[in-house]
Amino acid sequence: MQTPLYHLHQPSTPRRSEAIAWMVAVGVYVLLIAWVLPHVADPWQPVAAIPLAHALALAVVTLLTAVVLWLEARRTQMRGYLVLAGTFSSVCLLLVAFTLAFPGAYLPPAADGSPRALLGGPDTPVALFLLWHLVITIGVPVSAVLLDRDELAGREAVLPHGVLPGVLWGTVPAAVLSIWWLAVPSAVPHVYEPPELSSLGTLVVQATCLLAIAGLVVVAVVTRASSTLARWLIAICVLNLGDALLNLGALRYSEGWYAARALGFAALSALLVVLVVQLARIDRRTDHAATTDALTGVRNRLTFQDDLEREMARSQRDGSRLALLVVDVDRFKAVNDLHGHAAGDTVLVEVASRLRECVRAEDLLVRMGGDEFVVLLVGLDDTSQAETAAARIVASMLAPVACAGTTLVAAVSVGVAVHPGSAATTDELLRHADRAMYAAKSAGGGRYHVDPPSSPSAVG
Predict the structure, then answer these.
(1) Can you list the domains of the chain with their CATH numbers?
(2) What is the number of other CB atoms lying within 10 angstroms of the CB of residue 354?
(3) Known catalytic membership, residue 427
(4) Active-site choice (371, 381, 382, 434)
(5) Directed axis angle between helix 79-101 and helix 164-183, to 10°?
(6) How many other β-carbons are positioned within 10 Å of the β-carbon of residue 47?
(7) CB distance 330 to 413 below 8 Å
């Protein structure tokens, strides 16, 4: 199975600070749950705006999490991400439906003072509440198992139809069920007998608690906390288990009822931030690996054309000059043939190191492939600066390179083309610099040549 260079489920050992942060966060959460548990049924002042605000805010958090996971599913082509994204999108829809069915959220009380709901019946918000907990309790361990199987199978095209089927799976069933329960209250299972849950509702809460324990064990065993995603999934399971424990004895508007919402929202929001931060780090690492030459550590040619076009446009806009230097190691094939490819690699690494010392921080150094490098000098006032840099590069290579038990001289030929002057387009500028490099090589190597019309010639 083809996956990106870096990904969330890649085995990794957390840094000491990261491990401590995870343990502290989980420890604080467990202590808060333990502190609230003895008081879950203690009544508090009813404020309908709090569950409404909580559900809407949590819907936004779960939607953002689902979008992030859908994008990761498309990037990695793994089913586990798709199931996880579908889980969070289903929870998001159920939360939105919950706000429409919660009594007292939108409408004024009835004549007898009882709170009224916009849609649904007395059982609807409770059923939606219980259902979204079941969805996340089951969805997270299932996704962990699928991720593990996909990783072990190593198959191609795990998602041959893309992420669309997963998007539909994660939205359509939850949307249909929500609309049905909101429109037809009699279709909702009888889970609520005010002020407590019915026997069926209590059974669902107890089953959810047991499933949450089982889910935490499954995720811990399957993932072994061996990756960023594994640790994130374990944290989700701990959060879900704490929420399930608070719901065991909580009544509506009780201390446990409020605590479950406050702690759940804070923890899930923090986990979303962790997910986004980790993905940003992965994207930076992937971008660096994709654009960096593995041997020499300088940039590779992947984005060079775009960089050159951008700098040429900036040069025209600012009225400054830029110079393109093509640097080629003289008689490099002989180094490989006589001393081996390991010696050739040593020479290339040393050439790249000396080139770094010859250019400024704002200049661009690229290995185009083989023994050819390109230096892009930007913000020049005149051509002489390019010639000075080329002469400095040629001179820096005269010091011998120690490799394979001997010393070699890695002389280079440098071709210089200046813009504006030598060419109007990136292809022309590259061609002119390349032509100048071959002129220097034809003259014996170990020198530089400036392409006309900037200068007739210059030899170092």
Answers:
(1) 16-291 (1.20.1070), 304-450 (3.30.70.270)
(2) 18
(3) no
(4) 371
(5) 20
(6) 12
(7) yes
User: pLDDT per residue over 167-191, tens digit each?
Assistant: 888 899 999 999 999 999 999 999 9
The full DSSP string for 327-357 is EEETTHHHHHHHH-HHHHHHHHHHHHHHHHH
pTM of the model: 0.72
Q: Measured between alpha carbons, how far is 234 from 223 in angstroms, rounded to an integer?
A: 9
The distance of Cα 340 from the centroid of its chain, to the nearest Å, equals: 40
Paired strand residues for 89: none
Per DSSP bridges, beta strands 412-419 and 448-450 are parallel
| C-beta neighbour count of 228 within 10 angstroms | 23
| Alpha carbon distance 279, 289 (integer Å) | 15
Taking CA atoms, 99 is separated from 106, 198, 381, in Å, by 9, 21, 65
Residue 113: pLDDT above 70? no
| Burial (CB count <10 Å: 0-12, 13-18, 19+), residue 63 | middle
Long-range CB pairs of 363-366, under 8 A, 24+ apart, other chains included: 364/299, 364/304, 364/307, 364/311, 365/298, 365/299, 366/298, 366/299, 366/300, 366/301, 366/304
* 328-344 per-position pLDDT tens digit: 988 888 887 777 888 88
Nearest residue to 419 (alpha-carbon basis) of 286, 308, 337, 305: 308
Give the integer Cα–Cα distance in Å for 89 and 59.
9
Which residues, at least 6 apart from 405, have a Cβ–Cβ distance to it below 8 Å?
none
Which one-letter DSSP state was computed for residue 449?
E
The two tokens of residue 359 are 């250019």
| Residue found by looking up tokens 């508090």 in the block | 44
The helix/strand/coil state of 109 is: coil
Query: Residue 232 is encoded by which pair of tokens?
Result: 């994130």
Q: Residue 12 CB: number of other CB atoms within 10 A?
A: 16
Q: What is the DSSP string of 243-273?
A: HHHHHHH--TTBHHHHHHHHHHHHHHHHHHH
Nearest CA among 87, 32, 45 for reference residue 63: 87
